[in-house]
Amino acid sequence: MSQSVHLLTPSNLAVPKHNISFLSTFNRRLPVTTTTSTTAVYVFPKLSIRAASSDREPFVIVTDNGTSSLGLQPPTSQPDHALSSSIEVDAVTEAELRENGFRSTRRTKLICTIGPATSGFEQLESLAVGGMNVARINMCHGTREWHREVIQRVRKLNEEKGYAVAIMMDTEGSEIHMGDFGGASSAKAEDDEIWTFSVRAFGSTLPERTINVNYDGFAEDVKVGDELLVDGGMVRFEVVEKLGPDVKCRCTDPGLLLPRANLTFWRDGSLVRERNAMLPTISSKDWLDIDFGIAEGVDFIAVSFVKSAEVINHLKSYIAARSRDSDIAVIAKIESIDSLKNLEEIILASDGAMVARGDLGAQIPLEQVPAAQHRIVQVCRQLNKPVIVASQLLESMIEYPTPTRAEVADVSEAVRQRADALMLSGESAMGQFPEKSLAVLRSVSLRIERWWREEKHHEAMELPGVGSSFSDSISEELCISAAKMANNLGVDALFVYTKTGHMASLLSRCRPDCPIFAFTNTTSVRRRLNLQWGLIPFRVSFSDDMESNLNKTFSLLKARNLIKSGDLVIAVSDILQSIQVMNVP
User: Fold this and answer.
1) Domain assignments of the chain as residue spans, ordered by start
2) Would the CA dihedral through 522, 565, 489, 575 be positive or negative?
């Protein structure tokens, strides 16, 4: 068979316009009619896409053995005994689909940090009902036993209630940070108060207005007159005196001090790095926490203060060696000057990135943070890696039941940039209104997504090739073409059948207007897909026979009133590298 290749890309998808008349309006029920008798053939090594040669003949995909697996008509039905009676989908998404239809589904994913305010089973269930896709546990706080109980409750919630909440473990990192407050959940620093930052070891009770620092060289590195920033500048101090291991500081910007908050210090308008820059990215405690995460089977491990790709590669090799069957994704937190300098190589090495704006804003001038966020989001999408926008999204809701208008605008901008996920930190971990905070993220996301579809229809973005092989390039082109067709035809949903999640990720990268139903046969892949934009992950058993898979999913989804006859879908698969357009029978 000839191997001449004409990839089906957005640029050449329009080539057969003289052969096939695609409906350009949203009243788009098929079949599509042809206008000439000419046949156009596009050949891949294992498949070709042929335009029709006569009226109302379907678009056909032809494999090497001559069989067809793509048509505008639905596949032939299979015997009832061939269908499985089991399909797993998130309970909240299922309810949304039934009540409001395809276009109502939220595309931006939501992450909640779990803390004392939300660690109980009922509170976790309330967050799941409210739209939480990923539960984050922060190893800066709590004991491993406490985190183990949270993980068990989330797993129980998924098993008993039908959710697919993934678990992200966030390492502490080895940067300079404060200690605990002797049991207190927080402390308030007032203007002009003198506080002592000390590297000394105290008992269970700290002296009044005293804060432990984890870095032994802290008192040596700081100088009188330096500015000390707590938690990215939420509270500010000026160094006024050094007394051995103690550093006396005057509060210049009052605020709430939280346990384990990050510390940075500035001198003459520049960040003081010195020994801090030489601290290892992954501390000895972090390695113990990573062992804990591997043993507990978390879905994601977020690494703090990543300085280079080498750290990510080392961790991924370690995870593979410790658990050969592990499917843990590594998320790089971009929160330092080094992270920005080596951004592309870090993102390429990782499985995703987090824009940790709080700590990042402590290392670069505040006015540079918005541009840095935009750059990180764009690079992640171009390289096909999910990106999370985090830190201080709704900071005021830690204490108040409604956000500021500026916070709503900030959330809106992150959604408009098409970030995969938004993350709550203190708002859900120890805030007074965690469920209301999540509701704000959800409602703002839905509204901005709808506005984007209405006002910025069919957004164009240059997506460079990311495949490492010709087969990967075919998958990319199929997904780009499927997304373009979905927008042009106004289809109800995209279906993707994927064993590894890669093809679903490629579709998500294209940010199509319709939701993406991602079918996988692996529970861990299903949970991992819950982080990515626009994906509605289902778990269902399937075979290498695409016609059988389509009939099975059609039957199961129709039985649950999630789709109906006549709905228009486009299906792609990494099983056969195929693309199919059809009405639900």
Assistant:
1) 3-72, 80-101+469-583, 116-165+287-454, 187-278
2) positive
